[in-house]
Amino acid sequence: MIKIIDTTLPAITDNGYKVNPIDSFIDCLTTPLGSVIAKTDYGTNLYQLKHKPFNSLWIIDFKRCLKDACSHDPRLEFKEAIVFQNELGTGLLIFEVHIKNYIIKGTANV
Asked: Which among 20, 45, 73, 93 would be 20 to 30 A from 103, CA to CA?
């Protein structure tokens, strides 16, 4: 489960878009790749990560999913993704996605 905990990204729609950039990011991130018939390249492979062991390769794949989630909305120019491992062992991962001059902070259950 992905949850946004903080963002500096404006939560308003602009330039004729019907969806704000935060919702656009979450929708693309949580949509399985290939599940949208009209746009088979939309979505990410995030759904596959729940069956993989949590290690450094998992984090690389997760960062790739964060980047892919930005690729379908021209308002989301991806710069970098940072993943903070939770030391408490609760299975909660904290991440940041840097987009242009904005940051999206969120959590993911692993």
From this structure: 45
Amino acid identity, residue 38? A
Domain locations in the chain?
2-109
Q: Are 21 and 72 in contact (CB under 8 A)?
A: no
E strands, 1-110, where? 2-7, 78-84, 92-99, 102-109
At residue 96, the pLDDT reads 92
With residue 62 as reference, give the H or E element that holds it: helix 56-70
Are the CB atoms for 22 and 7 separated by under 8 Å?
Answer: yes
Residue with tokens 């998992």: 58
Is 80 exceeded by the pLDDT of residue 54? yes
CA nearest 76: which of 46, 100, 92? 100
Does the domain formed by 2-109 have CATH 2.60.120.10?
no
Nearest alpha carbon to residue 43 among 53, 57, 28:
28
Query: Can you read off the two tokens belonging to residue 21?
Result: 């950039």
